[in-house]
Amino acid sequence: MTTSILLSVRQFGLRVIWMTGAIAILFTMIGGLHNARAADAPVAVVELFTSQGCSSCPEADKVLAEYAKKQKVLALSFHVDYWNYLGWKDTFSQAEFTERQKRYAATFRRRGIYTPQAVINGRDHAVGSRRGDIESLIQSYTKSGKGLTVALNTRRDMEKIRVTTDAASGDATLWVVYFDKKRQVKIKRGENRGRTITYHNVVRNVSMLGMMKQGKIDVTLPLEEMKRTGHEACAIILQQTTVHGTPGPILGAAIIDDL
Q1: Which of 37, 61, 49, 81 is nearest to 183 (CA)?
Q2: How many Cβ atoms sit within 10 Å of the Cβ of residue 163?
Q3: Most C-beta atoms within 10 A of its C-beta, which of 114, 202, 207, 215?
Q4: φ/ψ (deg, to 5) at 83
Q5: pTM, two decimal places
Q6: What are φ and ψ of residue 27, in 5° steps?
Q7: If you average pLDDT over residues 247-256, what whole number do you get?
Q8: What digits encode the pLDDT tens for the residues 37-86?
Q9: Of residues 48, 7, 2, 10, the one with CA closest to residue 26
Q10: Domain ranges (residues) in the chain
Q11: DSSP 3-state assignment of 27?
Q12: In which order are the strands placed within the sheet that holds 44-50?
């Protein structure tokens, strides 16, 4: 089965890359898989909507960098494009990321979007520079059973990466998120003029692998095609969609380093 889908989301101003490449994948809802759970399986996902043209964002970028160094948190930096008119075009910004943030705004019943915004587990948001608020949400969801409740196991060999679950996932969508681990940018204009900022886990491409129904997951990804994207690493995310078609709770995630 080959999936090639472009999901565009727009509502107020942040951008999410949900562009999909043609990746041959095998989906099988089966039981009785014998997998080893990845040792670095994250317990939470933090999505930071940020911009090189926003003077409030550098502190949030530092907070995300701290989380990016922790194997137990999948920290992703989504650069939006709605501040590009301020004199500096964000070199990582994409309209799709702005659309994803807008869709989250609909999920959270907010009228607008802002930077820096951190979305935790697809369930709630906080100002991206307020590490205490982010950590509080992570701990609260973990203790209440609203963290990443579906373990995504990954197994890698020379030709493929296999992703499985030990338990039924329910209805959700499986995504692969490609990112670059570390990028330094010299900003020459705009609100952050003259600053050199290091960004971590910069999202470059998001591909939809497929819709999951009731049952377990067994997905095989061709490693060679993944390497051809040119990105350093990727994450696999299992996320529900709300009844309104907007992003919902993230059920599980796995990090795949060094493509």
Answers
A1: 61
A2: 25
A3: 207
A4: -100, 5
A5: 0.84
A6: -105, 125
A7: 95
A8: 444 689 999 999 999 999 999 999 999 999 999 879 999 999 999 999 99
A9: 2
A10: 2-256
A11: strand
A12: 124-127, 117-120, 44-50, 73-79, 196-212, 172-186, 233-241, 247-256
